[in-house]
Structure prediction request, 151 residues.
Amino acid sequence: MKKVMIILSFASFLIASDKSDIESLINNHWESWNLKKYKDYISSVHSGGTRNGDSNGSFWYENVPTIKNLTASRKPGDKSSFNARYIEVDVLVPGKAAVAYYYLVGSYTLGGVTKNDYRTRVSQVFITEKGQWKIKSGHFSPLHSGSGIPN
Prediction:
């Protein structure tokens, strides 16, 4: 019985650690994007890239994690102030796979258009790569009365 309690306690510790690590990763991911620290932003993404669906209603697409790819359509005045809120993490396999759900809120300026009502639901898949949690996939859908990103 003692061994079972120790194993369960250790498993609970691992899951709690995974959850806090992923929550930190999400916050750092968006802070890096806001500050245009693209190398740091890319470090939170799986090296094999991601498959995403954006809040502009686009089809699923592959995202190759390179600075050139990230900045190809960015203009000098483009900026954002995105913040993750109400992050929930479900650890599917401790230390290996998880899903996070949260709201991404804030503002952005893209191509000279500024929106101060960015409100989007986000779900992301995380897997570990070389012992570190990485984003592998994401889906973004605008909340009622919130703007998504333009096409």
Remarks:
- DSSP finds three helices and six strands in the chain.
